[in-house]
Structure formats: C-alpha cells, structure tokens
Amino acid sequence: MTTPSANIRSREQQFAPRLETKITEEIPSPTNPYHVKNMRIHGYDHSALMEKCEFSDVIFLLFRGELPNDFERDLFRKLCIALINPGPRHPATQASITAGVGKTDTVNVLPIALTIYGGEFDGAANVESTMRYFRRASRRPTNEVATALESNSDIEIPGFGQLYGDADPYAEALLNAFSSNSSSPLLSWIIALNTKLKQKNIGISKAGLCAAILAELGFQPRQGNALMQLMAAPGLLAHGMEYANKPLTSMLFEPDECYEIEQELAGSAAPEKTREVV
Amino acid sequence: MSFELWDDYRGKIRSKKGGWTIGKIIKSHGYDLMNDLVGQYSYMQIIALNATGRMPRRELADWLEAIHICLSWPDPRVWCNRIGALGGSSGTSAVASTCAGVLAADSRSYGIQPLQAGMEFIQRARTDIQQGLSVTDFIDAEIKKHGGKPHIMGYSRPIVKGDERIPAMEKVTKRLGFEVGPHLQLAYDIEKVLSDRFDEAMNINSYMSGFLSDQDYSPIEVYRLFSVLVFSGVTACHVDAADREQGTFAPLRASDIIYSGKEAREL
Q1: Closest partner residue to A33 among B29, B191, B253, by Cβ?
Q2: pLDDT in tens, A149-179
Q3: Which residues fall within 8 angstroms of residue A197, CB to CB, at 6 or more apart?
Q4: Which terminal Cβ of chain B has fewer Cβ within 10 Å, N or C?
Q5: With a threshold of 0.80, does the pTM exceed it?
Q6: Which residues of B are less than 8 Å from A48 in CB distance?
Q7: Gyration radius of chain B over CA positions
Q8: Annotated domain spans of chain B
Q9: With an 8 Å Cβ cutoff, are B164 and A262 in contact?
Q10: Superfamily of domain covering B113-224
C-alpha cells in the first residue's frame, strides 16, 4: 500500500515573528536590554499596585484587564478565600502530602497537587463547561431547569450534583456566604436553583460555585478551570509542606491485610501464549 | 445509607492490577512479576499490559515501540519540546521538565488527545460504512459538519502536508508480518478521496488509528497507552538546553515583546 503522505510539502504558514501581550509592558533598562527598569500591568505601575492593592485585586486585574470595583472586589476576594483550602482529605491534598512526605523536590509539590486538583471529583475540571452552561441556562426560570430534572433523572445540571452520595453541605455553606452579594443576578439564580434542587438531594458543587462567581464577574469560561486551581493552591501547598519534614512513616501505608488484589478477567489466567489476546 | 460505597472502601485499597505482598510476591495482572515477566517480555509489552490489562504479542509491542520513535524527536520548536528546553535553560530538573512537556501534549491540538479522537473517528467511520454509507458520502457528511472545510481528524497536519512517518511505519508493519486490516484499509480509502478532492493526505494519527483499531484497541486504551508519547524528545530538548548557559534558550530582550495594552495610567 502506498500513500500520498510520502510527499512532504510545507503549508507555508506564517508564524508570528514576535510575542504580543496586552497584559505586561516592560520598560527596558538603558544599560542591559534584557533587564527591566519598570513594569506596568494593564497600564498600572507595578510598584504602585504593590503599595495600594490587595493580592486578589491584582489577580483580577491580570485576567480581566481592569481593577475590580467595590462589588467585584468583595465577590472575587471572597471566592479566593472560599476555595483556598480543599482540606486534608481531598485527593489533591493527599497527593501534596504524599509528595511532601516522600521528600519530593519541593518545587514539584504544588504542580503535583494542582495536577490532581484538575480532576472532576470535587476538583476544577468542569468550571469552564459550567460557566458556559450558567450563561445560557440563567436566562430560563429556575423552575424550568428543576422541572427538566424531574422529568428525566438522567439529566445532569452542570455545577450541581452530589459528593459522597449526598448534596455537598459545605459547598452550600460557601454559597450562602455570598448571599449578602445578592445584587448579583446570576448568583441569585444559582441560590434559587440550589434551593429547588436540594429537595432532590442535589446541591451546588464547589466547581459550580466557582463557575457562578467567575461568570458573574465576566471572566472567560476558558479561564475557569485554571483559576479554580490557582485559588486552591495555597491550601494544597500548605498541607504538603506540613509533611515535608516528617518521616515516611508519618504517611499512610496500608498493611497487607488492608490491601486486596482483586482478580481481573484478562489477567487472571496463567501467563501462557494463549493469553496474549491483543 | 448514601455513603455506604465510600465506607466500603475506607481504610483499604483494592486493585485489579496487582501489588506487592511484602516478602512474598509482586503481582502484575495475574503474572508473578519477577518470575513470569522480567527477562521474558519486552518493556513495551509490559507498558501495554499496564495500560490496557492485555499483554500484546511481541510483534505488536515492537510495532508500538517503533511508532513511539516516530512520535517524538528532539526539535525544540515543537511545543512540548520547547517547554522541556525552557526547563533545561532555567535549571529545572530533567524530571520536572519532561513531565511539563508530557502535560503539554495532553492537548486538543497535538499530542495525545487527537489520537484518541482519531481512534473514535475511524471506528465511527467503519460503523457508518458497514451500515451502507459510501466512503464519499461519509466524507461529504463530515465536511458538512465542519462548515464545508476538509478538516477531518487524521487527514491534515499542522505546518506541512504529507507525513514521512507513514512510509517508515508501513515498512515496519510489513516487516513484522501485519496485514492491512479493515480499519487501516478504510483510512487509506478516505485518504484517496481527500487526496483527489482536496490535496490532503493522511497523517500518522490516521495511520495509527486504523492500525490500532484493527488490533482491537479502544480509543481510551490508546490514550492511556500513549500517555507519555512525547517524553523522549522533551528530555532530549531539556538536556540540550541544560548543558548550555542558563537563560540562553530563546532569550528575549524587553523590546522583543509587542505591548498592545492600555497606556500608562495612574492608580
């Protein structure tokens, strides 16, 4: 069999000759063009931001291009703290602890934890898709959304669900902490929908909470998953570092009687040629 | 009780893959690792066993090894490799740089995700055509889905048209004694139509997807099996940069960046 693929030709695509950014303006040093004399972030002097702004304000600025107004500042600051610590039982925190106690190079601990936090289970994987859903669905009455679930129990409502078999009460508590920000139309819609779905033991997830606030604040959905990771980073890292000086024996290592090797059909027979099924 | 499932798992670990019974045996997929596998099977066979739960024949493992060679080479302009080189130039460890490059290739645009999509595509194509659709009608329907453009998974490649890896792998496939199966044949049939109409040839994704579908792999199995497919080239690019002065890979003067944002403003 021959293929036209053997004929290799360039598509002659034009790649950008230089990087371009709307975020950072670096003013070069007069003596060394690789050094920076001053830096502006979306037009604001970096050192002025250090003097006058909160950490969460500058994160907001970096992603949205403007400093937050009072309403936005309060909402975003509260979200950063709401998500700051997934807690010691979270798989991502356990990964952080495992890396810490394993004496993994400390610069790898946070990337390890954040990678696991990028999953779907109580993690950041679905913030983007949930933001897109909330943007569309919040134009409809909450009754309509909740009724759709009644008529078809297989329907999933992004941002809502169960954790360990029940609606997640802590995610709901975090949501309720935003009730004073009720001038947010989307947040009001989410709180109302959560109330309706609670009767079915379905509740807001932490990713759903994150998606709601970020959508309300005008963040791009594409930024959502990664921003939730960013917000959880301090708590994930702190738990890993807590174990970084502890001995290996301070971490769980289940004894043999608690380790069960189950039979898997494909691998259960004797290792003979006939088992080579692929 | 709603949390019974989690209580059942609490305090114990279950595995269908294997484990280490201290002082007795290390088991992997029903094999005794030290007595049944070490020295008797190739490393690639074990990689496939761990990823899919099935032990491939040696010839298939050799094919998998050959295709891995095709999928990663040391050019730091390639996105994942560039990340490895930036790590090398920054004094980042080889492990961290390599893992960073591997993570980068978990991408919709290149690396591993398009391969899974290519598997899904060729298996769906075969099902549709088995149900009576002609290859031409199938392609027309796919093109319609993409707004009239011939953007079909596995049949275009960034930067170049054509793919030198296919002739190389065709030789390997033949030497190892594999026949062209129905999925791979369909990949060629689709290529013929696209080549005649749009001057687009298949790329390595389509070739792999056809071949691996004929070996009864599923899309998710292939995603798992090839999860670190770019690592070797990333490591090479890391090493090249790490052995030079720090910061010398792709250095940029401040003036090399085009700033197109807000004018300077007071806080």
Answers
A1: B253
A2: 777 777 889 999 999 999 999 999 999 999 8
A3: A146, A149, A157, A160, A167, A203
A4: N
A5: yes
A6: 266-267
A7: 23
A8: 16-55, 113-224
A9: no
A10: Cytochrome P450-Terp, domain 2 (1.10.230.10)
